[in-house]
């Protein structure tokens, strides 16, 4: 979940690039659904397979201690945009992303806006595009069967694997995320599991081994991405007058990253 800049549907499309925020133009009468868009990345390479159009939506119910984009927590942090405008913009990049890439909906937490997400996924599938949802899974119950059918891949952030650690880290309960993971497994929907490695917070070997065993039992986890914690977003907390609990935490050593990856591999999972 790595916002950049908001879409400008009036600008001429370039193969890649970031664009500054602008208010959307009037939507066609048929496009009644609107949502809050924080930003886009037009040639994303780390949010799903291939080259992707990544749409970052505003709003998130979690308050992760390591969040590097607290500017996505509230819907009104973004720009109110119609489904038609977003799909028009995606269509300009169709030639670049259709063959080996696709569209990823991220955030914030995209499932804070399920109606908007559902309409966007349907439009992307009508264009023949691969779709991915980057989510914590905390609001997975909002994914109905129709939305699920339009999803090709879920990038699932399981941020910790004990209730105590998860609540300390996010301020929320773990169970809804695990329930969503099990639901995805029951229908064979592919998952890429994402795990942020934070020294002193999410580096306990026993918890990682338990998460790895859980992921292996699901049977639909294509890969695990171990993501080293960094301090690149700390200034956003300070700029907003927010208390940042991880000021003194250093990024994990390469040795710790390697050990963590081996714990997931030990459960038979593919790891990057």
From TrEMBL:
Q: Where is the signal peptide?
A: none
Location comes to: Cytoplasm
Give yes or no: UniProt keyword Iron: yes
Q: Which InterPro entries match?
A: Aldolase_TIM, Organic_radical-activating, Organic_radical_activase, PFL1_activating, Radical_activat_CS, rSAM, rSAM_sf
- In what residue span(s) does the Radical SAM core domain sit? 46-267
Q: State the superkingdom.
A: Bacteria
Name the needed cofactors. Answer: [4Fe-4S] cluster
Main location (coarse class): cytoplasm
What Enzyme Commission number(s) does the record list for this chain?
A: 1.97.1.4
Q: How is the cofactor bound?
A: Binds 1 [4Fe-4S] cluster. The cluster is coordinated with 3 cysteines and an exchangeable S-adenosyl-L-methionine.
Catalyses which reaction? Answer: glycyl-[formate C-acetyltransferase] + reduced [flavodoxin] + S-adenosyl-L-methionine = glycin-2-yl radical-[formate C-acetyltransferase] + semiquinone [flavodoxin] + 5'-deoxyadenosine + L-methionine + H(+)
Give the record's keywords alphabetically: 4Fe-4S, Carbohydrate metabolism, Cytoplasm, Glucose metabolism, Iron, Iron-sulfur, Metal-binding, Oxidoreductase, Pyruvate, S-adenosyl-L-methionine
Please describe what this protein does: Activation of pyruvate formate-lyase under anaerobic conditions by generation of an organic free radical, using S-adenosylmethionine and reduced flavodoxin as cosubstrates to produce 5'-deoxy-adenosine.
The record's similarity note reads: Belongs to the organic radical-activating enzymes family.
Which NCBIfam families does the entry mention? PFLA
Q: What is this protein called?
A: Pyruvate formate-lyase-activating enzyme
Look up and give the organism this protein is from: Rubrivivax gelatinosus (Rhodocyclus gelatinosus)
Quick one: which gene encodes this? pflA
């Amino acid at each position: 979940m790595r916002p950049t800049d908001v879409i400008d549907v009036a600008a001429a499309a370039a193969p890649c690039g970031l664009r500054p925020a602008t208010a959307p133009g009037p939507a066609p009468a048929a496009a009644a659904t609107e949502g809050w868009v924080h930003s886009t990345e037009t040639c994303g390479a780390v949010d799903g397979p291939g080259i992707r159009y990544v749409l970052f939506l505003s709003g998130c119910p979690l308050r992760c201690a390591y969040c590097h984009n607290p500017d996505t927590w509230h819907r009104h942090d973004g720009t109110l945009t119609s489904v038609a405008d977003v799909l028009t913009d995606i269509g300009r990049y169709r030639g670049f992303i259709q063959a080996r890439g696709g569209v990823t909906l991220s955030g914030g937490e995209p499932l804070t806006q399920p109606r908007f997400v559902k309409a966007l996924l349907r439009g992307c599938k009508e264009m023949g595009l691969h779709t991915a949802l980057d989510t914590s899974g905390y609001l997975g119950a909002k994914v109905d069967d129709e939305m699920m059918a339009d999803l090709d891949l879920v990038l699932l952030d399981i941020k910790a694997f004990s209730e105590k650690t998860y609540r300390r880290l996010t301020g929320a309960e773990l169970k809804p995320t695990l329930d969503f993971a099990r639901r995805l497994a029951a229908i064979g929907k592919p998952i890429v599991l994402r795990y942020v490695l934070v020294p002193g917070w999410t580096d306990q070997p026993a918890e990682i081994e338990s998460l790895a065993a859980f992921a292996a039992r699901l049977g639909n986890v294509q890969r695990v991405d171990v993501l080293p914690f960094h301090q690149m977003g700390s200034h956003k907390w300070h700029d907003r007058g927010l208390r940042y609990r991880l000021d003194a935490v250093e990024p994990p050593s390469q040795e710790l990253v390697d050990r963590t990856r081996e714990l997931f591999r030990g459960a038979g999972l593919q790891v990057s």
